[in-house]
Specification:
single chain; 12 strands; alpha/beta; Aspartate Aminotransferase, domain 2; 12 helices; globular; Aspartate Aminotransferase, domain 1; 37% helix; 2 domains; three-stranded antiparallel beta sheet
Length: 411
């Protein structure tokens, strides 16, 4: 094979584990593409490769039909109308479009004597939500960054108190990418609806892993990502409620695809992959959640026996089945990760991995810097096995013992 065409897998491993890749336990960062998803995608790269917007011939119509099937599969998973699903490049774009699009529409079309120029977001939101809010502040909007409780959950009383007559939108992540906690979505939705406020939720981690019902939860805008649910990278979706109507201004100028809200040629294979991933989740989500939850509990229980000082960050009950954020007092997270080369875990969001300061999410929970710096994120998923979990327990416990032994290097 030509060197130009060769894409070897990186194997940054040592001989202690036979030069193989570590066990993957970072499923909040990204997931492996399910082989069934890949199988569904492949024909749209080489056989049914038409532009889905070229409906004057069979190639385009075949692609367009595939895109619409995928749109329907996504909609069914959240109890939405397919017409409410808009494809994007991922959750970051969806979050930007939801927050900025709603704000820009409200500014361009003011309603009533009190202009809606106030947005509320949790301090623990994903960086793309916080940065979108920062941009709105630069444009003259008011933003309240609401604190969370020590368990990572929002206080409904505090949220209600923060809503004013000028509040346009509340943005609350459904399930947290770093600490795994699940917010009370139905209660937040009911509160927002009663006050005439839009409710946006970053559902990147929740979609396909827990039940989401945009009608029952009164969610007006929901951001979705493909690569968090065993689908491809580079594709996502935004749910936009039709009744009562949620209106946005587009961020991208172009040919008016996606009913004028998101211009650009849709990547048919990626849309198909996201749809297939959603269809699989619709069938397997409940059973998969039970299995992964058992693995999570096994890991936490056995690791706590081996390392009694370990503590869980975030609410113990209201959390994703496969998510753990663990603090190891007296050991820095980078040292623990380096001492556990046989497993792939992280310190937090991949989107902020270049930051050298402690996690702003853990700080928002009230953790001092030394404990925030001692915390790692572990994400179990569809392809995690019991042997993977047991290996991880042994590896982490052994690393912690070495780093806390006399002469060890915990920092």
């Amino acid at each position: 094979m030509s060197p130009v065409l060769a894409y070897p897998r990186a194997r940054e491993r040592n001989s202690a584990v036979n030069n193989t890749l570590p066990i993957y336990l970072d499923n909040q960062s990204s997931t492996r593409v399910d082989p069934r998803v890949l199988e569904a995608m492949l024909p749209y790269f080489t056989e049914d490769f038409g532009n889905p917007h070229s409906e004057s011939h069979a190639y385009g119509r075949i692609a367009a039909e595939a895109v619409e099937r995928a749109r329907g599969e996504i909609a069914r998973l959240i109890n939405a109308d397919p017409r409410e699903i808009y494809f994007t490049s991922g959750a970051t774009e969806s979050n930007n479009l939801a927050i900025k699009g709603a704000a820009h529409f409200a500014r361009a079309h003011p309603q009533g004597p009190q202009p809606r120029r106030h947005v509320i977001a949790l301090q623990t939101e994903h960086k793309c939500v916080l940065e979108s809010c920062n941009e709105l502040e630069r444009e003259g909007f008011a933003v309240t960054y609401l604190p969370v409780e020590p368990n990572g959950l929002v206080s409904l009383a505090a949220l209600e108190a923060a809503i004013t007559e000028q509040t346009l939108l509340v943005s609350v992540m459904a399930a947290h990418n770093e600490i795994g906690v699940i917010q009370p979505l139905a209660e937040i939705g009911a509160l927002c609806r009663s006050r005439g406020v839009l409710f946006h939720s970053d559902g990147a981690q929740a979609f396909g892993k827990m039940p989401l019902d945009v009608e029952a939860m009164r969610i007006d805008l929901l951001s979705i990502s493909g690569h968090k649910i065993y689908g491809p990278k580079g594709v996502g979706a935004l749910y936009v409620r039709r009744r009562p109507r949620t209106r946005l201004l587009p961020l991208i100028d172009g040919g008016g695809q996606e009913r004028g809200l998101r211009s650009g040629t849709l990547p048919t294979p990626l849309c198909v992959g996201l749809g297939r991933a959603a269809a699989i989740a619709a069938v397997e989500m409940a059973g998969e959640a039970d299995r992964v939850r058992q693995l999570r509990d096994r890991l936490l229980t056995n690791l706590s026996r081996r390392v009694p000082s370990v503590r869980l960050n975030g609410d113990a009950d209201q959390r994703l089945p496969g998510s753990l954020n663990l603090c190891f007092p007296g050991i820095t997270a980078p040292a623990l990760i380096e001492a556990s080369p046989g497993i792939a875990i992280s310190t937090g969001s991949a989107c902020t991995s270049a930051a050298v300061e402690p996690s702003y999410v853990l700080r928002a929970l009230g953790l001092p810097d030394e404990l925030a710096n001692a915390s790692v994120r572990i994400g179990l998923g569809r392809f995690t096995t019991v042997s993977d979990v047991d290996f991880a327990v042994d590896a982490i416990a052994a690393a912690a013992a070495r780093l806390t032994a006399p002469g060890g290097t915990p920092t």
